[in-house]
Design goal:
The structure is a homodimer of 341-residue chains. In chain A, 42% of the residues lie in helices and 20% in strands. With 341 residues, chain A is of the alpha/beta class. Chain A has three domains: 6-51, 434 Repressor (Amino-terminal Domain) (Orthogonal Bundle); 65-163 and 297-325, Response regulator (Rossmann fold), CATH 3.40.50; 164-295, Response regulator (Rossmann fold, 3-Layer(aba) Sandwich). In chain A, α8 (193-208) links the parallel β6 (183-188) and β7. In chain A, α1 packs across α2 (17-24). The relative contact order of chain A is 0.12. The first copy, chain A, binds a DNA duplex (30 and 30 nucleotides) through residues 5-7, 15-19, 21-22, 25, 28, 30-33, 36, 51-61.
DNA sequence: GCTCCTTTGCAAAACGTTTTGTATGTCGCT
DNA sequence: AGCGACATACAAAACGTTTTGCAAAGGAGC
């Protein structure tokens, strides 16, 4: 079956292409009689007519295409959530998403953005797989853009990031509310917003509860299971042994579980553990399940596209919005009251 | 800066748009003098001219767009690899990928495929997140399509899937080569190709080594950590206790680690474990690292797009190809010779 | 009965390319 | 010198839409 175009519909409905076009778009519906409009629509339906978006895009200067450029799609488990959130929001409003992965290569990134532009994308979601501060690529000047999981030196571009400080506060408060007073913190070693923000949240939550901050209770390592294991082993052999550990990431929490196991401690009876990320694979796989603070990747992806489309459709110079997303607690089984010693 | 079109280049270079078009595409390069061609190219470069793919797509009846429809992008960690492989292959050949997630909803899937078709995609990659046998959606008739991680009732569509049997054989052979003779198998409970294929591979590998197959050494459960833990606890308390466990998935292997730990066994000294999937998050996070057989998602994604583009460019009725991908062993630290008892 | 609106439909131009057909030279050959 | 062959450049049509301007028909007001 050959593709059916608007002229085929026109011929079949015994009207001109103009009338068909008007009949199908309610915007100019007033220019066509209700009866003929219904007739045309019926014929179009019957023929299975679907407008060629390429042609209409050319005519309207609007492609209904959005670009999404990511660094490292593959290596991070968050990507899926962010992409899905973005794609859902786009699809619901009639847009389609074109995904590209720069593999963190600035040269490639340039070329990819230009390719996107050649395809006349109406806007671009510039996504990072973990929260960071970036210099916006110059290619993006002039194209509606929203930053996802990143903030820029230029304040002129809308952006969305998670509230790192609040996330850490939530985690630490959860431990405090369970009765813990000696809370270790296994922090990341990288110089990124999450590291600093979560440290700040940790300190703040302790302060709120009137607990003195003890630098000895903070250990840093690479944000992987191994780093978490080593750091936890260190903290758990301290004279002032913490009864609970707040871990920078679920991966580090996984290491903390291993350390606890090798020291003969059971979670949450002998030790409470809380993480950040809510990586299903880990948080649900661990035994007992890991209580953790979720990074709202789906929601952020959704928000980014929604904001982008709003800006595109308004197309007046809107004020950029800098969104900070809340991070909800996900309770499983790794937090309990401390042992009485 | 307003968009620069081909007529701008023509004006600046003092030639006609025809000449510009010919000068820029080497295909018809013979129709233009080498000198003017270079001149035109220089001018185009200087103006930063990039052709409008929408317009050229309309003219050429080729959009240089590919659709990729997935079930469940977000919930599976494999998605990233498959998407990346597909995207890389597409980009290298000048194509762009439009991603859609059907959330396993057939109604939505139909609509999404139609949306893709409206955008005049040149072909579609129909991807499943785990190997399965499917009925091809009728919407796809007439559109070049390749099945990714799925096979169809119709043999007329090219497809690519992993070699489940060989993957299992590889895993079990690895254990046998290490000296094990009593090898437990923790299998999935779902009725999917992987379940049957891996069981077959397990039996075959035992047979090759002259080991009798013992049904008591096979336990089934849901393919999650919890299922793996329970199944492993069962197998490890058998009178004929296996010295090694072959796990259907890395997630189940994670459960096997937990069972071993709770029984006071250390891996790989007291028990060898091998998985399938090579989920970095788990396989590298476990301690010791999990030896596992990788599912080649990146490679399959790449192959699917490459095949699809070949079929599109040949556009004669090519024979469909049904590809079966090898699954390589990834060695870490969870396999060792059995204890002498 | 005439003018003036309103309703309804159509023809044609436009979006930015690519490609076919044609025109103008220029050269080589007889 | 005359003819054809070739090289080079351009005009125009086409891809499938949307929208503007225009025309015809019908109705209302004077």
């Amino acid at each position: 079956m050959a593709k059916v175009g608007i002229r085929d519909v026109a011929k079949a409905a015994q009207v001109s292409v103009t009338t068909v076009s008007h009949a199908l778009s309610d915007a100019h519906g007033s220019r066509v009689n209700a009866a003929t409009r219904d007739h045309v629509r019926a014929v179009a339906e019957e023929l299975g007519y679907a407008p060629n978006r390429l042609a209409s895009g050319l005519r309207n200067q609007r492609s209904y295409l959005l670009g999404m450029v990511n660094d490292q799609i593959a290596t991070t488990p968050f990507a899926g959530e962010m992409i899905l959130g973005a794609q859902d929001a786009a699809y619901e409003r009639g847009w389609l998403l074109m995904m590209l992965d720069t593999a963190s290569d600035p040269e490639l990134e340039k070329k990819q953005i230009n390719t996107l532009l050649q395809h006349q994308v109406d806007g671009i979601v510039y996504a990072k797989m973990y929260h960071q501060r970036i210099a916006t690529p110059t290619e993006l000047a002039g194209v509606p853009t929203v930053l996802l999981d990143a903030t820029s030196d230029l304040g002129s571009i809308s952006s969305v990031v998670p509230d790192e400080v609040a996330a850490a506060r939530t985690a630490v408060r959860t431990l405090i509310d369970a009765g813990h007073r000696t809370i270790g913190f296994i922090n990341n070693i990288d110089d990124i917003p999450a590291t600093h923000g979560r440290f700040q949240g940790y300190v703040e939550a302790l302060g709120e509860a009137g607990i003195d901050f003890d630098p000895a209770l903070v250990a840093t390592a690479e944000s992987r299971a191994e780093g978490g294991r080593i750091a936890a082993q260190h903290l758990l052999s301290l004279p002032t042994r913490p009864t609970a550990l707040f871990c920078f990431s679920d991966r580090m929490a996984m290491g903390a579980y291993q350390a606890a196991g090798s020291l003969g401690m059971t979670i949450p009876h002998d030790l409470s553990v809380i993480g950040i990320d809510n990586l299903e694979l880990i948080a649900e796989g661990l035994w007992p399940g890991l209580t953790t603070v979720a990074l709202p990747h789906y929601g952020m992806g959704r928000w980014a596209v929604t904001q982008l489309l709003d800006e595109i459709e308004a197309s007046g110079d809107e004020e950029p919005v800098h969104m900070i997303f809340d991070c909800p607690l996900v309770q499983r089984g790794s937090v309990a009251p401390p042992l009485h010693i």
